[in-house]
Each structure stands twice: as C-alpha cells, then as structure tokens.
C-alpha cells in the first residue's frame, strides 16, 4: 500500500485527494465524483506531461501529484461549439485538435475496443439478422413496376422548373447535367416531405376523429401481401370503432398510402431516388431510425437525405440535433452494405463504446460477405468503380 496525495484541478478549482494506491483507479474516480459531481464513467483524468489520460493500466504509484480532471461530456460539447465557430460546414470536416486531445481520443478508442472484445459476442448471426431483411427491401427498388408506380405520382415538370429556378437564383442559367441532377434531387426531397404524412395514431376510418392505441392485430392476407405483417390497432375516442394501421414494408403500397413513420418515409423515398436514377442507399440506424443517402456527382460524394424533415447534407443532425446516442449506422444498397457510422458522428470513441452486438472484425466480415454476394459476377471494371465510390 502506498498513500498518496494528489492535487486535482478541474475547471478553475483545485481539490486535494488522499488516496491508497491499492484501491485502484475506480475508487479514485468515486472520490472525484463526490468532489466534482462528474460520474466516474464520464471522467477523464490527465496525469502526464504529455497529457495522456490515466487508465487502469497506469502505475498509480509513479504518476505525478498534479492531475487534471475533464468531463467527457463537456469536452464533447466544447468540441462541437469550437468547430461551429470555425465556420465548419456540416460535412465531416476535421476538427482542429491538439495533439493532447488526439492522444486522448485514441486512448478512448483503444479502451472501447478492448471492452468490446470482452463483452461482444463473436457470432455473426445477430448482426446478419438485423441487416438481411433490408437487403431484400432495397432490391424492390430495382423493380420496373414499382419504379413506374412511383414515377406516376411525381409532378416531374414542376420539380424540373423549381430546380432551374433554384439554380438561376445562384446565377447558374446554363447548368450541366450534374448540377441539374443534384438540384432536381433536392426538389424531389422537398416535394416528398410535403406529400407524405406522418402518422402517430391514424384518424378513425369511420368518423375521422382521434384514436388511441389499442394493441397489435393479426395481419390480413391483403396486408401481408405488401409486407404489412405488423398491424397496430387504434380505437376511436368518439365512436369506438377500431382502425387498423398496417406498417407496410413494400414501397409499392407506400407510394399509394403515403403515410407512416420514419421507416415508411425512408423506404418510400429511397424508391423515388432509384426511380430517377440516383445511386441510393437505405441507411439503417440501429437506434431506431432510417434515412437515405444518394451519390451526388455534383458534390463528388455520398449525400445524406432526411425525408422526414426535408433536410439534406446534415449528417450530424442526429447526434448533435436530436442528441441520439448512435452505435451502428449501416448503408444498404443493391450492390453492397457499408458501415457509414463515422460520417454521422464526431464522437467516434464514444460511439465505439456502445458497439457491443459483435466485434469490429466480425462486423466487417458480415458486411464484406454480403457485399461480395451482391457483387458476384460483376466485371473487374465495374468493381473498381464501385470500390472507388465506396470510399467517398
Ligand atoms: Zn370514429
């Protein structure tokens, strides 16, 4: 046992901490919690001249007397603010980081990976089971009948006109095809958002009044036909009639019903994107959300599109705006599946600590296996184009 006295600096305050090295780091963290109210799992204790954080592996007998305590949450907040002050756009522009910050984030990433090795299963099944159904869904977007049904609902001339007006407003009266396509896609998004209806509880089929959730119902054959195997039931507050709300998975049906929640929005909108020839991905966020990405030749990269909000190219909308604690964000396209999580976070080390379904190597195995399967028989020329696009 070695009794030590530390001087711990946090913000503008200093705290004296007496501590027994046999107790381990966890006890030190609880002592600091009682002094600063920063929970142990949000503490980062910096102890070296080079600013390295103290970890379970650190030699608590040898470290210096003066320590600095940082709250991970405050740190993340500062980082977002400072990047906003740098006039950063929402695309993944790199944050200006000190070597110290960088070292700490690397350390946190290493720790998260170690934890993952320890707690995550090595079984591929759980991950594969989550992704596979969406691979089937995106293949529906290639069906000419579904595309034709979608196309019929779009006021194409009107959107063309609006795209040209938007370009003209920017002084571009003679747009290239690439520019035109990009602006048309945005108009398609805005139109879609207005033409689709969000439904929490549907109005009564009989009298149009408000309803309340009543439970689950058995799907009818006509509902199953369009992937509506989950049926929610709602009871009218006025006439007590039961209204069904089947959660259709087939975008052919959604083109007609034009209502639902984020799953229906993203599913149907991605069909529209494919209908107009955009390379598209359905984006599956494991914390219960879906959206779309299209490859913009105008930007030279994949672009985020949020059909529920009509927002685009705002990949930090979820983590920063909605304060989501993301873990896995997987892009699903007709020719492969990709882990795009890093596009949607500025806190990769924190995201990593929540990725416990399986290990990173197993995840990457599952994704590359499905991608290979989808690309079977492709020529090497096509493959190299796709692989180049994957990286953007
Ligand atoms: Zn009613």
Describe this protein's structure.
- InterPro entries: Papain-like_cys_pep_sf, PNGase, Transglutaminase-like, Ubiquitin-like_dom, Ubiquitin-like_domsf.
- Residues 1-60 form the Ubiquitin-like domain.
- Belongs to the transglutaminase-like superfamily. PNGase family.
- The chain is globular, with a radius of gyration of 26 Å.
- A hairpin with a 4-residue loop joins strand 12 and strand 13 (311-312).
- The strands form 4 sheets. It has a 6-stranded antiparallel β-sheet with strand order 13-12-11-10-14-15. Strands 2-1-4-3 form a 4-stranded mixed β-sheet. Strands 6-7-8 form a 3-stranded antiparallel β-sheet, with no helix packed on it.
- It is built from 14 helices and 15 strands.
- It has 3 domains: 3-117, Ubiquitin-like (UB roll); 125-196 and 261-390, C8orf32 fold (Roll), CATH 3.10.620.30; 198-257, N-terminal domain of TfIIb (Single Sheet), CATH 2.20.25.
- It has helices at 24-36, 72-85, 99-119, 125-140, 144-152, 156-169, 177-195, 221-224, 251-257, 262-275, 317-321, 348-353, 360-374, 380-390, and strands spanning 3-10, 13-20, 43-46, 66-71, 197-198, 211-217, 231-236, 242-246, 259-260, 280-285, 289-296, 301-306, 311-312, 329-333, 336-339.
- It has 392 residues and is α+β, with helices and mostly antiparallel strands.
- It starts with a strand and ends with a helix.
- Helix 9 (251-257) packs across helix 10 (262-275).
- It binds zinc ion.
- Residues 204, 206-207, 209, 236, 238-239, 241 line the site of zinc ion.
